[in-house]
Specification:
- The chain has 198 residues and is mostly helical.
- The protein contains eight helices and no strands.
Length: 198
Protein backbone atom coordinates (compact mmCIF):
# COMPACT_ATOMS: atom_id res chain seq x y z
CA UNK A 1 0.00 0.00 0.00
CA UNK A 2 1.28 3.44 -0.91
CA UNK A 3 2.27 5.81 1.93
CA UNK A 4 -0.16 8.47 0.68
CA UNK A 5 -3.06 6.14 1.56
CA UNK A 6 -1.88 6.07 5.17
CA UNK A 7 -1.80 9.86 5.03
CA UNK A 8 -5.43 9.92 3.84
CA UNK A 9 -6.47 7.59 6.67
CA UNK A 10 -4.70 9.81 9.23
CA UNK A 11 -6.31 12.91 7.70
CA UNK A 12 -9.80 11.38 7.99
CA UNK A 13 -9.05 10.45 11.61
CA UNK A 14 -7.94 14.02 12.34
CA UNK A 15 -11.11 15.40 10.73
CA UNK A 16 -13.24 13.13 12.90
CA UNK A 17 -11.34 14.17 16.03
CA UNK A 18 -11.93 17.85 15.26
CA UNK A 19 -15.61 17.20 14.53
CA UNK A 20 -16.13 15.51 17.91
CA UNK A 21 -13.94 17.92 19.90
CA UNK A 22 -16.66 18.50 22.53
CA UNK A 23 -15.67 15.20 24.15
CA UNK A 24 -12.23 16.65 24.85
CA UNK A 25 -13.62 19.10 27.42
CA UNK A 26 -14.34 16.36 29.95
CA UNK A 27 -10.82 15.01 29.44
CA UNK A 28 -9.45 18.53 29.99
CA UNK A 29 -11.23 18.65 33.33
CA UNK A 30 -9.95 15.20 34.30
CA UNK A 31 -6.38 16.08 33.25
CA UNK A 32 -6.46 19.32 35.26
CA UNK A 33 -7.90 17.58 38.30
CA UNK A 34 -5.32 14.79 38.08
CA UNK A 35 -2.44 17.26 37.90
CA UNK A 36 -3.82 19.32 40.78
CA UNK A 37 -4.30 16.29 43.07
CA UNK A 38 -0.85 14.85 42.47
CA UNK A 39 0.76 18.29 42.60
CA UNK A 40 -0.75 18.66 46.07
CA UNK A 41 0.56 15.23 47.02
CA UNK A 42 4.08 16.14 45.86
CA UNK A 43 3.74 19.45 47.72
CA UNK A 44 3.18 17.53 50.95
CA UNK A 45 6.17 15.30 50.21
CA UNK A 46 8.43 18.26 49.46
CA UNK A 47 7.68 19.89 52.78
CA UNK A 48 10.18 17.39 54.15
CA UNK A 49 12.84 18.49 51.64
CA UNK A 50 14.01 17.63 48.12
CA UNK A 51 13.86 14.19 46.56
CA UNK A 52 16.78 12.80 44.52
CA UNK A 53 17.88 16.23 43.39
CA UNK A 54 14.52 17.19 41.84
CA UNK A 55 13.06 20.52 42.86
CA UNK A 56 9.31 20.83 43.43
CA UNK A 57 8.94 22.81 40.19
CA UNK A 58 10.82 20.12 38.26
CA UNK A 59 8.72 17.28 39.67
CA UNK A 60 5.45 19.08 38.85
CA UNK A 61 6.60 19.71 35.28
CA UNK A 62 7.69 16.06 35.11
CA UNK A 63 4.21 15.00 36.19
CA UNK A 64 2.60 17.39 33.69
CA UNK A 65 4.69 15.99 30.83
CA UNK A 66 4.20 12.32 31.65
CA UNK A 67 0.47 12.84 31.97
CA UNK A 68 0.56 14.78 28.72
CA UNK A 69 2.04 11.76 26.94
CA UNK A 70 -0.53 9.49 28.55
CA UNK A 71 -3.49 11.63 27.52
CA UNK A 72 -2.14 12.26 24.01
CA UNK A 73 -1.63 8.57 23.29
CA UNK A 74 -5.12 7.50 24.38
CA UNK A 75 -6.96 5.93 21.46
CA UNK A 76 -9.61 3.26 21.09
CA UNK A 77 -7.16 0.78 19.58
CA UNK A 78 -7.37 -1.76 22.42
CA UNK A 79 -11.15 -1.98 22.36
CA UNK A 80 -11.27 -1.94 18.56
CA UNK A 81 -8.82 -4.81 18.12
CA UNK A 82 -10.37 -6.84 20.91
CA UNK A 83 -13.82 -6.46 19.35
CA UNK A 84 -12.48 -7.26 15.88
CA UNK A 85 -11.06 -10.54 17.16
CA UNK A 86 -14.14 -11.47 19.18
CA UNK A 87 -16.59 -10.69 16.38
CA UNK A 88 -14.47 -12.23 13.65
CA UNK A 89 -14.32 -8.93 11.75
CA UNK A 90 -10.53 -9.22 11.70
CA UNK A 91 -10.85 -12.06 9.17
CA UNK A 92 -12.29 -9.60 6.64
CA UNK A 93 -9.89 -6.80 7.48
CA UNK A 94 -6.65 -8.76 7.11
CA UNK A 95 -7.71 -9.65 3.57
CA UNK A 96 -7.61 -6.00 2.53
CA UNK A 97 -4.59 -4.57 0.66
CA UNK A 98 -3.37 -2.79 3.77
CA UNK A 99 -1.60 -4.10 6.84
CA UNK A 100 -4.07 -4.45 9.71
CA UNK A 101 -1.78 -2.97 12.39
CA UNK A 102 -0.58 -0.08 10.24
CA UNK A 103 -4.12 0.76 9.14
CA UNK A 104 -5.17 1.20 12.77
CA UNK A 105 -1.93 3.03 13.52
CA UNK A 106 -2.62 5.55 10.73
CA UNK A 107 -6.19 5.85 11.96
CA UNK A 108 -4.88 6.66 15.45
CA UNK A 109 -2.43 9.29 14.20
CA UNK A 110 -5.16 11.85 13.52
CA UNK A 111 -6.54 11.53 17.05
CA UNK A 112 -3.03 11.71 18.50
CA UNK A 113 -2.21 14.90 16.56
CA UNK A 114 -5.42 16.54 17.76
CA UNK A 115 -4.74 15.46 21.35
CA UNK A 116 -1.12 16.63 21.13
CA UNK A 117 -2.11 20.16 20.15
CA UNK A 118 -5.00 20.50 22.62
CA UNK A 119 -3.29 18.95 25.62
CA UNK A 120 0.04 20.60 24.77
CA UNK A 121 -1.57 24.02 25.18
CA UNK A 122 -3.34 22.92 28.36
CA UNK A 123 -0.15 21.41 29.83
CA UNK A 124 1.83 24.61 29.20
CA UNK A 125 -0.88 26.78 30.76
CA UNK A 126 -1.26 24.54 33.83
CA UNK A 127 2.49 24.39 34.38
CA UNK A 128 2.86 28.17 34.21
CA UNK A 129 -0.14 28.74 36.50
CA UNK A 130 0.69 26.09 39.10
CA UNK A 131 4.48 26.43 39.46
CA UNK A 132 5.71 28.94 36.88
CA UNK A 133 8.31 28.41 34.15
CA UNK A 134 10.90 25.67 34.36
CA UNK A 135 14.07 27.76 34.62
CA UNK A 136 16.42 24.82 34.04
CA UNK A 137 14.80 23.88 30.71
CA UNK A 138 16.92 24.53 27.64
CA UNK A 139 15.50 24.77 24.10
CA UNK A 140 18.47 22.73 22.85
CA UNK A 141 16.87 19.58 24.28
CA UNK A 142 13.50 20.25 22.61
CA UNK A 143 14.18 18.07 19.51
CA UNK A 144 15.19 15.16 21.73
CA UNK A 145 12.11 15.72 23.89
CA UNK A 146 9.84 15.62 20.84
CA UNK A 147 11.50 12.45 19.56
CA UNK A 148 11.15 10.84 22.98
CA UNK A 149 7.43 11.74 23.16
CA UNK A 150 6.81 10.42 19.63
CA UNK A 151 8.61 7.14 20.37
CA UNK A 152 6.73 6.67 23.64
CA UNK A 153 3.40 7.13 21.83
CA UNK A 154 4.41 4.60 19.15
CA UNK A 155 5.59 2.06 21.75
CA UNK A 156 2.37 2.52 23.71
CA UNK A 157 0.32 1.90 20.54
CA UNK A 158 2.05 -1.39 19.81
CA UNK A 159 1.77 -2.53 23.44
CA UNK A 160 -1.98 -1.83 23.35
CA UNK A 161 -2.26 -3.58 19.97
CA UNK A 162 -0.43 -6.58 21.43
CA UNK A 163 -2.83 -6.69 24.37
CA UNK A 164 -5.80 -6.29 22.01
CA UNK A 165 -4.68 -9.22 19.87
CA UNK A 166 -4.37 -11.49 22.93
CA UNK A 167 -8.16 -11.82 22.50
CA UNK A 168 -7.24 -14.69 20.16
CA UNK A 169 -6.23 -16.66 23.28
CA UNK A 170 -7.79 -14.81 26.21
CA UNK A 171 -11.44 -13.91 25.85
CA UNK A 172 -11.34 -11.16 28.48
CA UNK A 173 -7.99 -9.37 28.14
CA UNK A 174 -8.94 -6.31 30.19
CA UNK A 175 -6.95 -7.66 33.16
CA UNK A 176 -3.79 -7.54 31.03
CA UNK A 177 -4.53 -3.92 30.21
CA UNK A 178 -4.94 -3.09 33.90
CA UNK A 179 -1.55 -4.67 34.69
CA UNK A 180 0.08 -2.70 31.85
CA UNK A 181 -1.62 0.51 32.97
CA UNK A 182 -0.49 0.15 36.60
CA UNK A 183 3.07 -0.72 35.60
CA UNK A 184 3.19 2.36 33.35
CA UNK A 185 1.84 4.46 36.19
CA UNK A 186 4.42 3.37 38.74
CA UNK A 187 7.44 2.87 36.47
CA UNK A 188 7.93 6.33 35.07
CA UNK A 189 4.62 8.18 34.83
CA UNK A 190 4.12 9.13 38.47
CA UNK A 191 7.64 8.45 39.71
CA UNK A 192 10.86 9.28 37.87
CA UNK A 193 12.87 6.08 37.48
CA UNK A 194 15.62 7.60 39.65
CA UNK A 195 13.25 7.31 42.63
CA UNK A 196 13.08 3.52 42.34
CA UNK A 197 15.51 1.14 44.08
CA UNK A 198 18.60 0.14 42.10
Amino acid sequence: MKPNKFFVIAKVSLTNAVAYRAAVISRFVFYTLFIYVFMSLWGAIYKEGGVYGYSYVQIVWYLIMTEYVTFVSRTSILGTMTEDVRSGAIAYQIGRPIHYLFYHFASSVGQVIFNAVCFGALAAVLGLIFVGPLITFSLTVLPFLLISVALSIIINYFFLALIGLTAFRIEDNFALYLVYQKLSFMLGMFLPVEFLPD
